[in-house]
Amino acid sequence: MLATQLVENGLSLKKALRLVGLAKSSYFYQSKRASLDKAWAKRLKELALKNPAYGYRRLWALLRREGFKVGLKRVYTLYRKLGLALSFRKKRGYRKSQVPEDTFPLEPARRPLKRWSIDFKEKRLSDGSKVRILQVLDEAVRYLLGGWWDRRISGEEAAEYFDHLCRTYGPPNEIRRDDGPEFRSGAFQEVRQKWRIKERVIPPGSPYWNGFIESFHGKRGGRRNFV
Known about the structure:
Layout lengths: L1 H7 L4 H8 L3 H4 L4 H19 L5 H10 L6 H10 L33 E10 L5 E9 L4 E8 L4 H15 L4 E4 L3 H4 L1 H9 L3 E4 L9 H10 L7
Helix pairs in contact: 1-2, 4-5, 5-6, 7-9
């Protein structure tokens, strides 16, 4: 501003304002929009971290509900600038010849609580750290029997939780799992043998063999906030 430069060069503020033809109130005026922008931008980041599965449209609706008069395009611009958008890896397609013929269709159990799918899922928290989630799904009705999360889950802890579910619902006839070290541990196998449960172990690198719980991860996992 010219008046500011004149003052810095030694001219009094009154004379500088008279020379440039500027009112004193205009010289000291501070826009309220800048502070308002900082307020809704801060709130946008808080809402995005609290609800990582929400897109910019839903976050914009939450801001409007809280009284922030901000346009959708401005929210989208800042949403992208702050890197709040979720990044999804493009699903790799499989040619028919790449997938063994006996994997499809996956035949679910005909009666509830007869076959369970069990698997681990990783979730990133708002502070950037990761947790592991042990989930057990009933294949017949696609019902999540249990989900337990912690930063680290050992084979003994997985076995203890699996034993708890067997005592709660009654043991299944069979489980479907991958070849993870927690499921191969002596503690987990001891619990399985105690309840006389059969198991289907999917080959390494073949999540489509455990398609029921993998589908559950894709459809429901992003909506759950474990923060």
